[in-house]
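Project outcomes to date are best conveyed with an example. Our students and postdoctoral researchers have been running inverse folding experiments weekly, and each run begins with a structure described purely in tokens. The record below, which covers 238 residues, was selected by the lab manager from last quarter's runs and is presented without edits.
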């Protein structure tokens, strides 16, 4: 009997400690509901798309389409763009990395309203675009042709390979570079640092069109790289 009486306190003390540890673990764990996880994932996807699509003068609207299938929980969702080089307009796919449960994909619709360049008059093949041939129009970028140019600077100084009617968006696949600097030509290179400009002469080692980078040999024999900014004119920014 005495031996059993000594064992009882041991048994009744061990079990409460185990139960207490279990209760503490249960009370300390607050699982996030599936609806809350879905909402967090959609918020982060919207933030990513709105950030990537943002730009001066742009109005961006993002709608994330909910997932219809029943999927495992997604802890700490981290969205990413599977094809970051693609234009973010219309229906897009966004990947989401979930801690411990792999990666899933969501669909979203992005609408961007902004200015884009169009032809001010009818243009014929062979014309080299300048600022007087282009004007800006405001509208939904998602309605533009796939290869439409959105930045005027990407079109200036380039030659049209086909005719365009007045008011047409500028197709990037119908523009080609026009050599403004020929290999062996005498050129002027301007080095800019804010409003301070220094120029020097040199010889082009490559040919290039507007905005392209070519090698220049200075009169002192130094070889530098500069960007074409006009006919036999190049610039270097510091």
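After processing, the design step wrote out the following sequence:
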């Amino acid at each position: 009997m005495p031996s059993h009486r000594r064992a009882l306190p041991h048994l009744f003390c061990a079990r409460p400690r185990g139960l207490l540890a279990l209760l503490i673990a249960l009370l300390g764990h607050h699982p996030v509901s599936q609806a809350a996880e879905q909402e967090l994932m959609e918020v982060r996807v919207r933030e990513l798309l709105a950030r990537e699509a943002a730009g001066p003068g742009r109005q961006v609207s993002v709608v994330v389409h909910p997932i219809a299938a029943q999927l495992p929980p997604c802890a700490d969702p981290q969205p990413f763009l599977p094809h970051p080089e693609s234009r973010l307009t219309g229906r897009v796919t966004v990947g989401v990395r979930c801690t411990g449960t792999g990666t899933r994909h969501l669909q979203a619709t992005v609408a961007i309203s902004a200015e884009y360049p169009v032809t001010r008059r009818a243009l014929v093949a062979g014309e080299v675009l300048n600022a007087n041939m282009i004007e800006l129009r405001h509208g939904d970028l998602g309605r533009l042709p796939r290869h439409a140019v959105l930045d005027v600077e990407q079109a200036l100084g380039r030659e049209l390979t086909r005719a365009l009617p007045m008011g047409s968006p500028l197709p990037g696949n119908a523009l080609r570079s026009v050599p403004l600097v020929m290999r062996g030509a005498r050129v002027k290179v301007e080095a800019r640092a804010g409003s301070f400009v220094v120029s020097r002469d040199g010889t082009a080692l490559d040919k290039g069109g507007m905005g392209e980078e070519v090698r220049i040999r200075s009169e002192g024999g130094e070889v530098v790289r500069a960007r074409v900014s006009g006919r036999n004119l190049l610039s270097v920014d510091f």
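Helices lie at 2-28, 34-53. Residues 186-237 form a domain with the SH3 type barrels. fold (CATH 2.30.30.760). The training component of this project remains on track.
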